[in-house]
Recover the amino acids of this structure.
């Protein structure tokens, strides 16, 4: 064989035909593939104290606060009078020392501590506080992203929040790994108070009905913030009783303001549906709950607006099958993530399998919904494990049907699920560098 023949020879592609081999490849590829976390409540360092990180913030997360009251006689009233340090100490003592940390939220803390070489069996938080207190945020941030294998995150940004608005208007240097999402909750869920805020800011809006002047002014407000934030999409969290069409202010603003804005700016509109706010007000942010919603509302919106792209997730487990079926009927609908109370391994497994069976790889399997930086580590480590199992089973069924897969095909599929589908949906461009990597006789594309 001449040297030119060797140079021009394409690497041999070995098809994966053994179940054990398939599982090893899927797990390895999933663990090395970077993800875009498409919905978080994190903030770039430029937003200062709005960004939460460290052991006290991790332990006073509302999941663990709600769990605390099931295992401790402390009343919510006395809990809220404590300092954050005291709250964290109480939660650690109750859920991690006096009880085994078996819940998903508690195991998440164990995963985070273990990732940094900290003792998850410690009787107190001295070691953890000393560790996090010694960190520089910029270096810590990059380390967390590396541990979680995350390339980018999408924030949740509310221009009606004065603290956020000040940062955006200061032209602060926002870390390029953090992208904006324009939150619409105030406009769509609390129009009376939002109208007052807009009027106070100089916009000529009226609370009593949507006049053409009011519509134009709200559009002007959104245009301004879209230009400043450059969001990847607009988003809203909606209650379980959301319907479309309706006769309320929300319906009017959605039809006259939000959807035309999405269309003009070519921005997808994300709807997160099914929350019941303040079921137990004494728990503050831990007091929200879940309700089954009407998926027909999504179908009607997609049908009436075929030129607008929608992202959708539902909070209730019972809505997941209907959402998958709806996505089969409307190509402008992208299901995403296992939101909030669904972010448990058993439910992620069920939902991911169901979506693969109905939608192939044309969905976004997960987002972290993280509010504290280090949650990225555990939420993605735990989710990757479950997604790997679900995808492996799908490939095994394909193998039983008579069709093997290559490592390159698996890499292609996982890249689509973890970043490609979202990039295409929101128009997030990236200079792609593709190289052929030869590992033994198995060809991979990175």
């Amino acid at each position: 064989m001449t040297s030119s023949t060797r140079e021009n020879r394409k690497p041999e592609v070995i098809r994966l035909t053994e179940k054990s081999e398939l599982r090893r490849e899927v797990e390895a590829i999933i663990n090395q593939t970077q993800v875009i976390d498409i919905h978080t409540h994190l903030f770039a360092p430029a937003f200062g104290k709005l960004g939460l990180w460290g052991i006290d913030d991790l332990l006073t997360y509302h999941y663990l606060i709600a769990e605390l009251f099931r295992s401790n006689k402390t009343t919510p009233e006395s809990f809220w009078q404590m300092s954050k340090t005291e709250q964290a100490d109480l939660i650690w003592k109750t859920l991690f020392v006096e009880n085994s940390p078996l819940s998903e939220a508690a195991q998440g803390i164990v995963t985070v501590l273990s990732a940094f070489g900290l003792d998850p069996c410690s009787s107190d938080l001295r070691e953890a506080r000393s560790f996090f207190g010694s960190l520089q945020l910029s270096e810590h941030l990059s380390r967390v992203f590396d541990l979680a294998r995350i390339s980018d995150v999408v924030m949740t940004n509310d221009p009606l929040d004065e603290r956020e608005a000040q940062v955006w208007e200061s032209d602060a240097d926002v870390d390029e790994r953090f992208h904006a999402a324009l939150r619409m909750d105030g406009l769509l869920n609390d129009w009376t108070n939002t109208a007052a805020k807009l009027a106070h800011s100089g916009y000529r809006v009226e609370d009593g009905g949507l006049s053409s002047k009011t519509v134009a002014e709200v559009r002007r407000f959104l245009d301004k913030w879209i230009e400043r934030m450059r969001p990847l999409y607009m988003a809203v969290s909606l209650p379980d009783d959301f319907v479309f069409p309706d006769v309320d202010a929300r319906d009017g603003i959605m039809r006259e303001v939000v959807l035309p804005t999405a269309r003009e700016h070519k921005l997808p509109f994300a709807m997160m549906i099914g929350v019941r706010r303040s079921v137990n007000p004494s728990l503050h942010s831990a007091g929200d709950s879940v309700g089954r919603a009407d998926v027909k509302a999504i179908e009607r919106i997609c049908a009436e607006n075929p030129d607008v792209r929608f992202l959708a997730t539902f909070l209730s487990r019972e809505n997941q099958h209907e959402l998958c079926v709806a996505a089969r009927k409307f190509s402008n609908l992208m299901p995403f993530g296992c939101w909030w109370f669904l972010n448990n391994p058993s439910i992620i497994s069920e939902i991911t399998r169901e979506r693969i069976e109905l939608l192939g790889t044309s969905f976004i399997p997960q987002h972290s919904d993280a509010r504290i930086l280090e949650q990225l580590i555990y939420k993605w480590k735990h989710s990757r494990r479950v997604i790997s199992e679900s995808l492996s089973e799908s490939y095994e069924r394909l193998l039983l049907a008579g069709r093997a897969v290559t490592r390159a095909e698996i890499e292609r599929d996982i890249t689509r699920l973890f970043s490609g589908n979202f990039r295409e949906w929101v128009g997030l461009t990236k200079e792609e560098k593709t190289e052929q990597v030869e590992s033994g006789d198995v060809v991979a594309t990175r």
Remarks:
- The chain has two domains: 19-54+134-445, 55-133.
- Residues 143 and 149 are 10 Å apart (CA to CA).
- The first strand starts at residue 35 and ends at 37.
- The chain has a mean pLDDT of 93.
